[in-house]
Amino acid sequence: MKLIDGNKIAQSIIESLTKEVSKINGPKPTVAFIRVGEDPASVSYVRKKQKTAENIGIQSLLKILPDSISQEELIEEIEAFNDDSNVHGILIQAPLPDHISETTIFNTVKPEKDVDGFHTLNIGKLCQEDPSGFVACTPAGIVELIKHSKIQTEGKHVVVLGRSQIVGKPAALLMIQKGLPGNATVTICHSKTQNLEVITKQADLIIAAIGRPNFVSEAMVKEGASIIDVGINRIPDSSKKSGFRLVGDVDFEAVSKKCDHITPVPGGVGPMTVAMLMQNTLNAYKNQR
Ligand code: GUN
Fold this sequence. Notes:
- The protein is an alpha/beta fold and 289 residues long.
- It contains ten helices and eleven strands.
- It starts with a strand and ends with a helix.
- The mean pLDDT is 98.
- Strands 6-5-7-8 form a four-stranded parallel beta sheet. Strands 3-2-4 form a three-stranded parallel beta sheet, sandwiched between helices. Strands 1-11 form a two-stranded parallel sheet.
């Protein structure tokens, strides 16, 4: 079993971004975060993203809005950042309250400032394999992990668990792209999939993004398969100061014994998402200069 060290790979990306940003004279790249409500995971993710931006020399702004905000008011806040030429990237932390349409909100962000890659135009560009678009940070981070770990995807069977807009669908699109990593045969499974275990057992690479703690068991994995675990699930744990611990979608203890490469949780995909956001922000800045 080879452990994929997401922290180390993310750190090397962050170091190269830091060098690049230090050479910029004049106004620095700037990313604006919008957080709606006080969901503890969202608070923690946005804090981590801001801290990493600061370490790199990327400026960040944070607008915290109440859960009660209307969709129209939220749109106005986004438009203010769209119109601000000092802001190069905009990120609205998901999930949003139920009365707000995430699709509408993500499509309000100017595509050239859409560092999350959630705008319809950027998703369309991903479908068309047009590299001028932004790719969502988690799927982009997964590709980097696969590249760094030299996991083969050409002609291999990649099984993606989960069909979310943020991870499952774009990850599947990246795996079928012409090129490397890519050129894979991809199956997307979801909550209505029948005979799931029969499918996952055929996988050379499993990308698990379903948000169910320890869901992928030893019996679901072929000997020698590789595993990318996207899940970040909070499990109550009274022995921790925070009152919880993080576990992935994969039963790491059992599955790691029989697989080739595997990502840990935490320290696998999570840090890569943040690193790719920083890369997207620097690219957005360059495109707008
Ligand atoms: N919520 C969970 N992952 C993400 C992400 O990558 N971007 C945003 N904006 N919200 C998220």
